[in-house]
Design goal:
It comes from Paractinoplanes brasiliensis. InterPro entries: AAA+_ATPase, ABC_transporter-like_ATP-bd, ABC_transporter-like_CS, BCAA_Transport_ATP-bd_LivF, P-loop_NTPase. The structure is a single chain. This protein is of the alpha/beta class. It has one domain: 3-Layer(aba) Sandwich (Rossmann fold), CATH 3.40.50. It has ten helices and ten strands. The strands form two sheets. A six-stranded mixed beta sheet has the order 6-7-8-3-9-10, with helices on both faces. Strands 2-1-4-5 form a four-stranded antiparallel beta sheet, covered by helices on one side. It binds adenosine-5'-triphosphate.
């Protein structure tokens, strides 16, 4: 589904990514972790098409999207769940859900969304400004599902949320996986990543230094936390 090969990125003369290879298959959840400054944000920017100074190749569903502008990548099925959640504060929950354009016939309907996110159904008339952090994160995920994106890029979805909300987000990610969509999860919360991901990448100084299946990842949790400086 997503195949990234030899991805390089620069800020002026400074190289931030040095030949990164990442792969996400259909119905697969893959996490990517790394210390501050490892290059996670740069990688996300490259994948969504917002970083001009980049090399290498990005393919989505067999289609070469390298060099494609951000809006066309979105139409090709790349869904970005932003780390700042990007909720329209002056719109209600439902209005936020009605806005995203449909990019495929996998687009979730409103009843499907409300079924999977009862919290959003209860708050459908509430303005964006009044939502808790957890509700905002649910809404941000739901909005991307409304587009029918085939690959979801999630940037730190568990950040700053209470354990019970994080557990709910984990359940939602498993539901998304069951629909056959792929998920690339940028995530520093190793314990959470181990509950949802099939495979894990560790990024260090712009390079993938480890690729681990979930059993190995769980065994090495202590090590990884040390590496990440957590
Ligand atoms: N606007 C910029 N100008 C110059 N260098 C930058 C810029 N943004 C990031 N960098 C550099 O690129 C490298 C990767 O940064 P990036 O923000 O992608 O890391 P990160 O893993 O997302 O870190 P964090 O967890 O702190 O967000 C770092 O060395 C950083 O200093």
């Amino acid at each position: 589904m997503l195949e990234v090969t030899g991805l390089t990125a620069w800020y002026g003369q400074a190289q931030a990514l040095h030949g990164v290879d990442v792969r996400v298959d259909e119905g697969e959840v893959v996490s990517l972790a790394g210390r501050n400054g490892a290059g996670k944000t740069t990688l996300v920017r490259c994948l969504i098409g917002l970083h001009g100074q980049a090399g290498g190749a990005v393919r989505l569903h067999g289609r070469d999207i390298t060099g494609m502008p951000a809006h066309r990548r979105a139409r090709a099925g790349m869904g970005w769940v932003q780390d700042d959640r990007g909720i329209y504060a002056s719109l209600t929950v439902e209005e936020n859900l009605l806005l995203p354009p449909k990019v495929s016939d996998r687009a979730w309907t409103l009843p499907q969304v409300y079924d999977a996110f009862p919290m959003l159904a209860e708050r459908r008339k509430a303005p964006g400004t009044t939502l808790s952090g957890g509700e905002q994160q649910m809404l941000a995920i739901a909005r991307v599902l409304r587009t029918g994106a085939r690959l979801l890029l999630m940037d730190e979805p568990s950040e700053g949320l209470a354990p019970v909300v994080v557990a709910r987000i984990g359940a939602i990610i498993r539901e998304i996986k069951a629909t056959g969509a792929g998920v690339l999860l940028i995530e520093q919360n190793v314990k959470f990543a181990a509950t949802v991901a099939d495979r894990h990448y560790l990024l260090s100084q712009g390079r993938i230094v480890e690729t681990l299946d979930n059993d190995e990842f769980r065994r090495r949790e202590g090590d990884l936390l040390k590496h990440l400086g957590i």
